[in-house]
Amino acid sequence: MSNTPVAIDLFCGAGGLSQGLSDAGFDVIWGIDHSEEAVQTYRANHDGVAIKRNIRDVDPDGGIELAEDDKVPSEQVARFDIGPSDVDLIAGGPPCPTFSRVGRSKIGSVEGTSPEEDDRHELYQEFLRFVDYYDPGAFIMENVPGIINSENAGGRIVSDVIVSEMEAIGYNVDVYVVDAADYGVPQRRKRAFFIGNRLNRDNPNLKHWQTHREPEDDNETKLKRTGTVGQEQETVQATMEEVVSGDVPDFDEIVPEQPRKSPWITVGQAILDLPPVSPGGPTSDDSNFAIPEQATEYQMEPLTEYQEWARDVDESRDEALTNHRSRGHNMYDLSLYKLLGEGVGWDIGDVGQDLQPYRQDIFEDKYKKQHPRKPASTIVAHLEKDGHMFIHPREARSLTVREAARLQSFRDSFEFPVPLTKAFKIVGNAVPPRLAEVLGKALLEELFDVNRTDQKR
């Protein structure tokens, strides 16, 4: 065990929440999730310490029993031999799709069930079961914003019910809805966080920990080169010089109540240094004349601090860049992609009948080209099905897994060693690590006194 505050991650997914908490200073000793692909990804990026389980079948009393299939390295087995008082923080995001407007619309078409039949909205109770057993000093539970105002079958506000159950086991609880863009993530992503502690402290006010803000005027959206790349040069046409802009924070330092926050980080600042790839292109980049389907090497230097921060890989290895492969698109979709301007979207019903590729009464998909001078729209798990809502701002294709991961604030060393469609799903389901890092630092400083006394509890 560690001398730093110890955390476990329930419903860990690929490990975005774990990554951020680790970057903040927690010792995240293990994660648990029901998805094989998520656990495989977590293991690849977090010392192999994750197990695949249906959390309803796990009884923490007496320690977590491991099997050979769990593939936990022998030197890490002791991490699961814990009991009450051994854990400082329990974190997790129990899936609650019935509280999400997107989730409710997809449940019937994708899974063949109705929202009323879906029982995943009760998984927060499994989260609280672990909190009640391990009795940590604090917990943080992430969920969709729809959980705040949704009503249960009895007509009660769901968030009020959850808070009352959290308070019943001894925790002081606050609920916040935050936008990831306000915390250095190049994406508009609103999420609810339930923060509880039994340390007789006020919970951190997450608004005080915001690092970024909406641009104040058009001058802040006029993009310019930064650092040593070159001098500002305005132009009428949208070029690379227009997509690299503004001041971004020092990613190694997070300070609450900053006197001057930086403007939101944009799609262009986040991904436009990545090499072009093409649907149906050559499978290698050996050709000097064709854009490949996949790129494994960077072709240019980073142009923004965010891009430089994201490139935390050893570029001398065989594949410096991973997960940067274009998914396939038919010619019809590619033609529609070209018609869209920056940041412009279509509902399928808005497209003329002669252009509609799908039946509107069956599919509710939309097309949207991401705007290079704004944060991305919310990256969602539906990317597993198609990429129509996430069309590249400069290339006639949807985003790659690496680009989606960048927009979720995963650095380039974080790999997704699973099939492409599954990688899109777990990226879309993840908590952005950059957001999780800010939350972790807020908890460490305001609840655990780490930055003041460097002591636990």
UniProtKB/TrEMBL annotation:
<comment type="similarity">
    <text>Belongs to the class I-like SAM-binding methyltransferase superfamily. C5-methyltransferase family.</text>
</comment>
<dbReference type="InterPro" id="IPR018117">
    <property type="entry name" value="C5_DNA_meth_AS"/>
</dbReference>
<keyword id="KW-0808">Transferase</keyword>
<dbReference type="InterPro" id="IPR001525">
    <property type="entry name" value="C5_MeTfrase"/>
</dbReference>
<protein>
    <recommendedName>
        <fullName>DNA (cytosine-5-)-methyltransferase</fullName>
        <ecNumber>2.1.1.37</ecNumber>
    </recommendedName>
</protein>
<dbReference type="GO" id="GO:0003677">
    <property type="term" value="F:DNA binding"/>
</dbReference>
<dbReference type="Pfam" id="PF00145">
    <property type="entry name" value="DNA_methylase"/>
</dbReference>
<dbReference type="InterPro" id="IPR031303">
    <property type="entry name" value="C5_meth_CS"/>
</dbReference>
<feature type="region of interest" description="Disordered">
    <location>
        <begin position="205"/>
        <end position="233"/>
    </location>
</feature>
<dbReference type="GO" id="GO:0044027">
    <property type="term" value="P:negative regulation of gene expression via chromosomal CpG island methylation"/>
</dbReference>
<dbReference type="InterPro" id="IPR050390">
    <property type="entry name" value="C5-Methyltransferase"/>
</dbReference>
<dbReference type="GO" id="GO:0032259">
    <property type="term" value="P:methylation"/>
</dbReference>
<dbReference type="InterPro" id="IPR029063">
    <property type="entry name" value="SAM-dependent_MTases_sf"/>
</dbReference>
<feature type="compositionally biased region" description="Basic and acidic residues">
    <location>
        <begin position="205"/>
        <end position="223"/>
    </location>
</feature>
<dbReference type="GO" id="GO:0003886">
    <property type="term" value="F:DNA (cytosine-5-)-methyltransferase activity"/>
</dbReference>
<keyword id="KW-0489">Methyltransferase</keyword>
<keyword id="KW-0949">S-adenosyl-L-methionine</keyword>
